[in-house]
Design goal:
This protein is an alpha+beta fold. It has helices at 6-12, 35-43, 57-60, 105-121, 190-194, 212-215, 224-230, 239-242, 264-268, 272-278, 290-302, 308-315, 321-333, 341-345, 350-361, and strands at 21-27, 71-78, 83-85, 93-96, 126-130, 148-149, 155-156, 164-171, 233-235, 253-255, 261-263. It is 33% helix and 13% strand. The protein has 2 domains: 6-88 and 101-171, NADH Oxidase, CATH 3.40.109; 190-361, no CATH class. The structure holds iron/sulfur cluster (SF4) (2 copies).
Length: 364
């Protein structure tokens, strides 16, 4: 059977790939399946109740999803920056991780929609998965030769490292497949020793129960030890990406960039709808902006201003109970939990009173 050369097809149809986009192609059926791998992680509870591809592993991990499909095209979008942001934040400020500074899925979606337009014009059948819980987006990455899975569990490519997003398009056409390569992390373990919580201690396995990025997107109550480890992070954690040598620049410059630094007090007293507008591309559980305010309280308590204590006292009464419980922890973190008896005398909520007593008992 004669296979179509995809690059030639793109040239013939004047579809120009941006330099940040790379393609890998796998012939189908592939015989691959990641369902058991996903189920194993779920069984060991390393997914920490994350839904996404864990909701239906039999389908999400299945590579050969469509009987009509003869090829899978993997798209990668490289969002590596030429500079690295400084971890230092002014007092009262929080950090947004580099991977979340913008909605990097938008340019990836733009290029796949151009492919969809072309394939529609040519009467090709196709189906696209991008950031979709029904498809494990790493399925065809390694076998297509684009790169390898690192010990950080991220998909890595030479010169790009983990700074990339993936998309998959199934097609009924027979495209010429790309060749798999023999890449690996070798003896490197920098992501493992850089992770602040030990979430990557087991090679190639992420323990989401310990991952700061996971917790800052979780609707669950964040444990005390994780809150302290969050430091000044408002959303996301970059440690395992920044430490990864294949993704580092030779001429690295570290800049103090205010664009990914947020005023935490401002966030705590913002209108929720405004926060959803400002950070629309973040994963926010139930689209409830109180989870962003919760993150802001934790980061502010770890990186307080001189008057954060007064700020907490002033706003405690105006906040909802789900946030007050974090303010109490913040007051404990500031060493002020024994000074707020008068405030708690007026508190009616039993759970908050219990939390207050618990935190008081944790002071020496
Ligand atoms: S995102 Fe942060 S906490 Fe999570 S595995 Fe990477 S380094 Fe560890
Ligand atoms: S830091 Fe090293 S071990 Fe970790 S993913 Fe990158 S190359 Fe692999």
């Amino acid at each position: 059977m004669k296979h179509i050369n995809l690059n030639n097809l793109l040239i013939e149809n004047s579809l120009i790939l941006p330099k940040e986009v790379r393609l890998g192609i796998v012939s189908l059926p592939s015989g691959l399946s990641f369902s058991e791998k996903i189920k194993k992680i779920k069984k060991q509870n390393k997914h920490a109740n994350m839904k996404f591809t864990f909701s239906n592993p039999d389908y999400s991990g299945k590579a050969d999803k469509f009987e009509w499909a003869n090829s899978a095209i993997v798209f990668t979008f490289d969002y590596k920056q030429s500079k690295q942001n400084s971890y230092l934040a002014s007092k009262g400020s929080g950090k947004i991780a580099a991977f979340a500074e913008q909605d990097y899925y938008q340019p990836l979606k733009k290029i796949t929609s151009e492919f969809e337009n072309l394939f529609s014009k040519l009467n090709y059948k196709f189906y696209t998965f991008i950031d979709n819980p029904n498809h494990y987006d790493r399925t065809f990455f390694e076998v297509s030769g684009l790169g390898w899975q690192g010990k950080s569990t991220m998909m890595l490519s030479p010169g790009i490292g983990p700074w990339q997003l993936l998309g998959t398009m199934y097609s009924d056409q027979h495209f010429e497949p790309t060749q798999s390569q023999n890449y690996s992390c070798g003896e490197c373990n920098l992501c493992q020793i850089s992770c602040p919580t030990g979430a990557l201690d087991e090679d190639y396995v992420l323990d989401a129960n310990k991952c700061l990025s996971y917790w800052l997107q979780s609707p669950e109550t964040i444990p005390y030890d994780i809150r302290s480890a969050v430091g000044n992070r408002f959303y996301g954690c970059d440690e395992c990406l920044v430490s990864c040598p294949p993704g580092q620049n030779n001429n690295l410059t570290i800049t103090k960039n205010n664009s990914h630094e947020v005023d935490l007090e401002k966030i705590i007293i913002s209108i929720n709808e405004d926060l959803l507008d400002a950070y629309g591309w973040f994963y926010i559980p139930k689209r409830n902006a109180n989870y962003l305010k919760r993150n802001a309280i934790i980061a502010l308590s770890n990186n307080p201003k001189n008057d954060t204590y007064k700020f907490y006292l002033k706003h405690y009464k105006t906040l909802s109970d789900d946030l007050k419980i974090y303010i109490l922890w913040g007051l404990w973190k500031l060493g002020k939990i024994n000074d707020i008896g008068y405030l708690m005398d007026k508190e009616d909520n039993k759970d908050l009173k219990l939390e207050y007593e618990k935190l008081k008992s944790m002071t020496s």
